[in-house]
Amino acid sequence: MNPQKHIQIAQLFIPSDAHILKGLLEAQDITVFMFDEGFSSLTPADAIAVGGIKIHVPFEQKEKAQQIVDKFYENLKEEDILKCSNCGSTNLKHDYIEHIKYGFINLISAFAGANASHGVRHYKKCLNCGYKN
Ligand SMILES: [Zn+2]
Fold first, then answer.
1. Residue 1: helix, strand or coil by DSSP?
2. How far is the CA of 122 from the centre of ligand 1 (A)?
3. How confident is the model at residue 133 (pLDDT cuts 50, 70, 90)?
4. What is the pTM of this model?
5. What is the pLDDT of residues 73-114, one digit of tens each?
6. Which 3 state secondary structure label does DSSP give 10?
7. Cα–Cα distance, 114 to 100 (Å, whole number)
8. Nearest to 17 by CA among 97, 113, 100
9. CA 18, chain centre distance (Å)
10. What is the whole-number distance in angstroms between the Cα of residue 126 and the centre of ligand 1?
């Protein structure tokens, strides 16, 4: 791998997010290089200390990859404003195992053109009432 020939397109602090993004890119035949993954898996504090997990792609695939990254971040933003549908609280805890299961299906479906925004987002637990959103 020649460091001159690829470029960083994303930086993530949550290993599961990095793996989802990697999977999305690879599904589009984009070569993915991940850096600092091992260290970032230790604790979130360590991940922040090294600047997170860096995702690089080859220069010639940058534009195609950037579109996927943009869509991926858009999805994360939507999740950030999610409220508990039971009590309306925004005090939701991310369930990473559920995130991997449902988030991945959701994102893949989105890229396949299917509307998967309903029924596959059960990976936030409300800390107020315990309801799984
Ligand atoms: Zn609730």
1. coil
2. 13
3. confident
4. 0.54
5. 887 766 555 678 889 888 877 766 666 666 666 677 766 666
6. strand
7. 18
8. 100
9. 6
10. 5
